[in-house]
Design a protein that fits this description.
Elements: E1 2-7, H1 14-28, E2 32-37, H2 40-49, E3 54-55, H3 64-77, E4 81-84, H4 88-100, E5 104-107, H5 118-127, E6 130-133, H6 136-145, E7 154-156, E8 174-178, H7 188-195, E9 202-207, H8 213-222, E10 229-233, H9 238-242, E11 247-250, H10 259-266, E12 270-274, E13 291-292, H11 298-309, H12 313-330, H13 333-354
Parallel strand pairs: 1-2, 1-4, 2-3, 4-5, 5-6, 6-7, 8-9, 8-11, 9-10, 11-12, 12-13
Helix pairs in contact: 1-2, 1-13, 3-4, 4-5, 7-11, 10-12
Length: 355
């Protein structure tokens, strides 16, 4: 297949990681994959990983110049299917694809990613995209948020990661890690308050930046955790930091299917997480003892973390192997890319039959 991926967003987010991961695998499977984007860093990564990345100017919705540029690009490639993001992607590249009779897939990242607007509804009615979601939780919420969308047009392919093949090890003291942005909704305060009540050896590694960083640093100091928390800030090597840890922490109050969790499973970390969004969809029964209710507070986290920190080396390694197995069976990148490949081929065939 000749596949074009489009992303008009200005900042890096989970959809860009998803695009590069899956575009890279589809290219490795032998497909002609093109990636068009606005952000220079994204385009550079696409060139390196996928073999093609091209800067695209989008302008306003329905911009004739942008539509014309995509018309030329799709004609050059003889594109079979276009996979795009929400927003300007549909109103430029989506329009060009519709004019050329090319099927369109719109990737949805959160249940209410697309607000109800007359313009968007009209574009959806004309272009008739299929919708791709990274988990069932998002698919169900998205279908509810736009009542005019036919649930049959909403499909799920779980996000994927490549499980590590490196041997797992344990550390003393145990190394805990949180890799979410330091924003209030990510629940770092709950983690700090929980850990402040635990009189057992541990290190907490906090990766990322955000609006709550200064307050959280002050809170950690006031709770007596200053010597036990390492603040890494922004990192371009999150998998490398995860590989040096034992236990992954996710206390977010709301999520879709968090990329940070999948990265942790791929590195074989024991995951302690709130049961929010699509988290349960990648937790196997062996991991469910580490899954807390959505409203779990510091006391509930502290109870589970004491259990995790008390595990022997052998028991911790067994729990970490269960995480790797969850990655292999629920969200292995090659398997999910093959699933996407088959679904995209079905979309091309079904679209041709409708013409």
């Amino acid at each position: 297949m000749r596949i074009a991926f489009i992303n008009a967003t200005r900042k890096w987010g989970g959809v860009k990681t998803w695009t590069l991961d899956f575009a890279e695998r589809l290219a490795a499977f032998g497909h002609d994959v093109r990636v068009y984007g606005r952000q220079p860093e994204f385009v550079a990564q696409a060139r390196q990983r996928v073999g093609h990345g091209e800067r695209a100017a989008f302008g306003c919705d329905l911009n004739p110049a942008a539509v014309a540029r995509f018309l030329r690009a799709f004609r050059r490639q003889r594109t079979d299917i276009v996979v795009l993001n929400i927003g300007k992607d549909l109103a430029t590249a989506g329009v060009a694809a519709r004019l050329l009779g090319i099927p369109v897939v719109q990737r949805i990242g959160l249940p209410e990613d697309i607000p109800q607007r007359i313009k968007t509804r009209l574009l959806h009615a004309w272009i008739r995209p299929a919708f791709l979601c990274p988990c069932r939780f998002i698919a169900d919420g998205f279908a509810r948020s736009l009542p005019y969308v036919d649930p049959a047009d909403v499909h799920v392919v779980l996000n994927g990661k490549t499980p590590t093949t490196a041997p797992l090890a344990t550390h003393a003291p145990r190394r805990l890690i949180a890799t979410q942005q330091l924003n209030p909704d990510k629940g770092h305060e709950t983690l700090l308050r929980a850990l402040s009540t635990i009189d057992m050896p541990f290190e907490l590694h906090v990766v990322g930046t955000g609006s709550d960083e200064t307050r959280l640093r002050g809170l950690a100091a006031s709770l007596g955790l200053a010597q036990r928390v390492l603040w890494h800030g922004f990192s371009t090597d999150v998998p490398g930091l995860l590989a040096q840890a034992d236990i992954f922490l996710l206390a977010s109050r709301s999520e879709g299917l968090p990329n940070t969790l999948l990265e942790a499973l791929a590195q074989g970390l024991l995951p302690v997480s709130r049961d929010v969004g699509g988290v349960r969809e990648v937790f196997t029964p062996q991991l469910e003892p580490w899954l807390l209710p959505p409203d779990a507070g510091p006391e509930a986290f502290a109870t589970v973390l004491r259990t995790a920190l008390a595990l022997s080396d052998d028991a911790l390694l067994a729990a970490r192997q269960a995480s790797l197995e969850a990655c292999r069976t629920r969200c292995d990148l090659d398997a999910k890319a093959r699933e996407l490949e088959c679904w995209l081929a079905d979309q091309v065939t079904a679209y041709a039959r409708r013409q």
